[in-house]
Design brief:
Chain lengths: 341, 247
């Protein structure tokens, strides 16, 4: 507001000086300058107020132009009328007015035009910002909801089967049943705790993964074998919470349900250029697996989560080597150049 | 009277709990425990059981797929942990289903229900049950057939075409043809409509296999497959095929 007032004041002075140069006395020059510019301010304010409440769309620009013309003409006659009170009997002023009126109208029109353009640009920018803000907010909400849903999806089947195993163990091997109840509780507790977190260290994930694997091993007996190999550097790297388990779960399902024999699941984690690289391997039957070419729900949800968190679709890759299915996930670390949201 | 029973479940502990529950019912005689559908098919043929306890999610073939391979399936009590699709499918049709973990009481109830059905000699609509189960989206991705003693899993995209043959449907793949005791209508229902089109009363074709369509006699057509086989296209089938191919 202050620069606006100052420039307006300067403009009044310049206007006054110009009139003085043209041979008017100081009083007349000042009166005319103040009156005409004050009126012009009112017109400008009126224009800006219009923009605040109504932004013209494409077809509205012609209307805007008409408005500027009408307001400029209105301003001119208003100015004539008001200055008349003070300078009616000043012949020098009257003759000057007669000579300069086209110039006055042109200048006023230019000023009003500029003001409306600036006002339009400003309010348009503001509106744009507002909608942008709303959109990002809405997007964030849907993303949160979706992430929440994706994390929730894996539990029931596993849970009921685990409970069934415990139920069976209680009769025959109560001590094992007890251990399994403890493992299941701890697993559920860590899972629940992680619901609130986005990023966790790999060591934490490995801990709950091991609990999960212990439970699955009780369920499937000696059909399931696992081999975990983790680089110490990778242990300190981060990954989205509850991402590792669906990955392994998928490998187990794929491996155990596609073969009738024993299944070896291999998990490897490494640090690759500061990113966390996780590889999960499971055997599959080459003859029947084409029916399962789709990565299955487990991997889809992992991919979707990685996309929502990192904005990239190429972080999860799968390949088949002979009868081994390999799932590889690259996880950019939060806070690095490719920072996740 | 003794009844022959089989338990088919891939988890040893899940089998042991069924066994444990069975101890309360001495008339049930456990013939064998099977850990997958292949063993199940063999054991059913060998023992001709009166009742089977069947898990749904098992290695290689599901419980439903296993039942499809058996000419006259025995009575079935499903035992499953949580399967929302299957639940809907067999709720009305199986003898019963036990949701794991189940109690002795719940198990007794299922057995009593079965005994009553047995007494009334009511026919249990296992076929209907299977048809319902086949709507399970995962199952439509493949078809399980039996050739002699071998069980073959055919991914649906590998099917070239289907041909009706009396009570059977002949499934043609690159490896040869397989018979399955089903109707064309059944396949029309379970196979993805984006991939298969019924060109004729007796034929269904995988559209990815079609190389061209030739006119044949008057007003009729044949679809020529990559393998060179010509499939009849009826007057009713032609417009369907055309829309499928986007012509």
């Amino acid at each position: 507001m202050i620069p606006f007032t100052i420039s307006w004041f300067v403009w009044i002075c310049v206007h006054q000086l110009a009139l003085y140069q043209m041979g008017l006395d100081w009083f007349s020059a000042m009166t005319d300058s103040i009156i005409s510019n004050t009126l012009l301010i009112y017109v400008s304010m009126l224009l800006i107020t219009i923009f605040r409440f109504h932004l013209p769309r494409k077809q509205g620009f012609f209307n805007l132009f008409i408005w500027v013309v009408l307001l400029t003409i209105g301003w001119f006659f208003m100015n004539e009328w008001v200055t008349g009170f003070f300078l009616k009997n000043n012949p020098a002023y009257q003759s000057l007015m007669k000579n300069t009126w086209p110039l006055r109208i042109a200048t006023a029109f230019l000023i009003n035009g500029c003001v409306s353009l600036i006002g339009y640009a400003y309010y348009n920018w503001k509106e744009h910002n507002e909608t942008e803000k709303q959109r990002t907010e809405a997007e964030k909400l849907t993303r949160d909801a979706e992430l929440y849903k994706l994390r929730q999806q894996l539990q029931p089947h596993f849970l009921f089967n685990a409970l069934n195993s415990i139920n069976a163990l209680i009769g025959s091997r109560p001590a094992e049943a007890r251990t399994m109840v403890q493992q299941l509780s701890e697993f559920l507790r860590t899972t629940l705790k992680k619901e609130e977190q986005q990023w966790v260290k790999l060591e934490e994930e490995i801990h709950s993964l091991q609990l999960y694997l212990e439970i699955e091993k009780v369920r499937f007996g000696n059909r399931l074998e696992t081999h975990i190999e983790i680089n110490t550097e990778a242990m300190k790297l981060q990954l989205p919470a509850l991402l590792l388990q669906p990955l392994v779960e998928n490998a187990i399902k794929f491996g155990l349900y596609d073969t009738t024999g024993e299944t070896l699941i291999k998990l490897k984690a490494d640090a690759e250029n500061g990113q966390l690289a996780i590889t999960v391997e499971n055997p599959f039957d080459t003859e029947t697996a084409s029916a399962q070419k789709g990565t299955g729900f487990g991997l889809n949800s992992v991919q979707r989560r990685l996309f929502l968190l990192c904005g990239r679709n190429d972080l999860l890759q799968t390949e088949a080597k002979e009868n081994i299915f390999i799932t590889k996930v690259l996880i950019p670390q939060p806070g690095t150049t490719e920072h996740p949201l | 009277m003794n009844y022959k029973v089989l338990i088919i479940d891939d988890e040893p502990l899940a089998r042991s709990i069924v066994k444990e529950c069975m101890e309360q019912h001495p008339q049930l005689q456990l013939m064998e425990e099977c850990s997958n559908g292949f063993e199940g098919v063999k054991a059913i043929q060998q023992h001709q059981p009166d009742l089977i306890f069947l898990d749904i999610q098992m290695p290689k073939i599901t419980g439903f797929e296993m039942l499809e391979l058996i000419e006259e399936p025995p009575h079935v009590i499903f035992t499953t942990a949580f399967d929302e699709y299957a639940m809907q499918a067999f709720e009305a049709n199986a003898v019963d289903y036990l949701l794991k973990p189940f109690s002795q009481q719940r198990f007794d109830k299922a057995i009593n229900k079965w005994m009553e059905l047995n007494r009334a000699e009511a026919k249990i609509p296992t076929e209907h049950l299977l048809k319902e189960a086949a709507r399970h989206p995962v199952q439509n991705e493949r078809v399980v057939v039996k050739t002699g003693t071998r069980i073959k899993i055919i991914p649906v995209q590998e099917i070239h075409y289907l041909e009706a043959a009396d009570d059977y449907v002949k499934i043609y793949t690159a490896e040869g043809s397989f018979l399955k005791k089903q109707t064309m209508g059944y396949f029309e229902e379970i196979l993805r409509t984006s991939l298969f089109v019924r060109t004729h009363r007796s034929y269904m074709v995988n559209i990815q296999q079609i190389t061209r369509i030739d006119p044949y006699e008057k007003e009729n057509h044949v679809a020529v497959l990559r393998s060179g086989v010509k499939i009849p296209v009826s007057r009713a089938g032609y417009p369907k095929l055309k829309t499928m191919l986007g012509l």
